[in-house]
Amino acid sequence: MSKPSNLFLLAIITLTLTGILSCEDDDVMQSTETTLISFGPSGVMHGDSVLIIGENLMRVNAVEFAPAERVPESEFLMREDNRFMVIVPPTAETGTIKLHTDDEVIESKTQLNFSVTYSITDVTDEARPGSDITITGNFLNWIESITFSNNLTVEDFVSQTQTEIVVTVPQEASTGRLVFQGGGFEPMTVETEESLVVTLPAVTSVTPQAVRHTEEITITGTDLDLVKEIIFPGDTVVARQDFVSGSDETSLVVHVPATAVDGQITLVAYSDVEVAVEEPITIILPAETSLAPTPVPVGEELTITGTDLDLVGSLVFPGVAEPVTEFVSQSATEIGVIVPEGAISGFMKFITIHGYVVNLATTLELPGEGPLPLVLTIFNDNFQNGWENWGWVQVDAASDEQVFDGSSSLKVLFNSAGGAWEGIQIGNGTPLDVSGYTNLVFYVYGGPGSNDGQVMVKINDSANDPGATISVVEGEWTPYSLAISELNATSGTDNTWNMIILQEFDQLAGDVYIDYVGFQ
User: Fold this and answer.
1) Which one-letter DSSP state was computed for residue 196?
2) Domain boundary among 54, 77, 112
3) Same-domain status, 172 and 124
4) Which of 153, 240, 296, 376 sits in a 20 to 30 Å window from 317, CA-based?
5) DSSP of 320-373, one letter per residue?
6) Is the dihedral of CA 34, 36, 37, 40 positive or negative?
7) Are 15 and 136 in contact (CB under 8 A)?
8) pTM assigned to the model
9) Is residue 327 situated within a structural domain?
10) Is residue 481 part of a domain?
11) Domains in the chain: how many in total?
């Protein structure tokens, strides 16, 4: 049991209300009626005496304190017709005083209030959200509220007496100290020295650990009914209402989201406290082991062998914008597909039946297809030979959305900064002598909305020179091979290059992809 410190758990709630009641009578001296005139002192403590002043008080046979605590006349300390004293019972609360006679009850118009020292001696150490904890001490009937962690204040208790409070732990509470709020004219707060430990869900196993998208996994453990939601790797959240089952404390079943990736699952309690599951899950994805024949002509059947190929919903061929959804044959270990028109050598992609994209590791080779090899590469899957992005436009240098050769391309979003004349600036800290090359080559693919956009190609810092102009064709890869001699002339430079600029000049919109950049 947690024990609050004496320093914090002894609080005096001083409640100051003067109990003065006046009674007027035109002929009070001749009256035989019992009259309550005043009582005091104000702010009296339990166990102290209260002096009651009035008329004809010998007729009083009991004094009643709130809520219903009677003190018989046999316990009066001093008795006279116009005054007597009585000890305040330990269970008395703020309220009026009632004088009982044989034939009437005289009630004060004002309330008697108290200076109270309440103390807390024990608090339950650990509890589940939704369960009851017990607080013991003295004068606990004066406590009006208890605040749990996360600023959750409870005013309705299961039970409350002078020595004990039973209260339900809120569902959203987390481990932390309790704060007690007393009543009175100047309320005081008391905070426990030790924290109430609030139980969290715990996991013992996840099965299966290797699972396909949308399949079920079973999580076993303890207190799993306290789980509000599950975060899968990839930041997809599954709420409790979407669990297959989860009312049991020891297990819950949930579908793996189609966007989940390999990694750890995280359980989230109703308090928003996160509990990481140690055992990671592995997402089963289609994987190829070989492509045959190689090379394969356009219009001929390509056989892809591998594992879990029944998960493939479509195939993306390099050089072809639209995925191929019709197969000659398909099983878990083999796919037969006709190579479409427009396909070129490069890396293919699987798109699973759940929309997840998987890059193939094996190169598709077509006879007599593909670009001439680069003598010096600037970009092909990544920047090479000291070249890097120096531009002022938004660039993704590892985009796999549209790829001409390899596994990634440069994705450029012109006008991403909100203005015209934006461009990608490819720079090299070590100027390059290009006299040994004849052409700068690259491939450009226009995304939606980019059709017929114009881009200037300029060399070095040639702000006032026109450079060369190319067009962006929407929906297809367009090859460009620009003579170095002409670029030198239009850019006003010589054979020493340290910068290549592709700059739009007519409010080009949409994404533009650039790939296979280098010298021939």
Assistant:
1) B
2) 112
3) yes
4) 376
5) -SSPB---SEE-SSEEEEEPPTT--SEEEEEEETTS-EEEEEEEE--TT-SPPP
6) positive
7) no
8) 0.58
9) yes
10) yes
11) 5
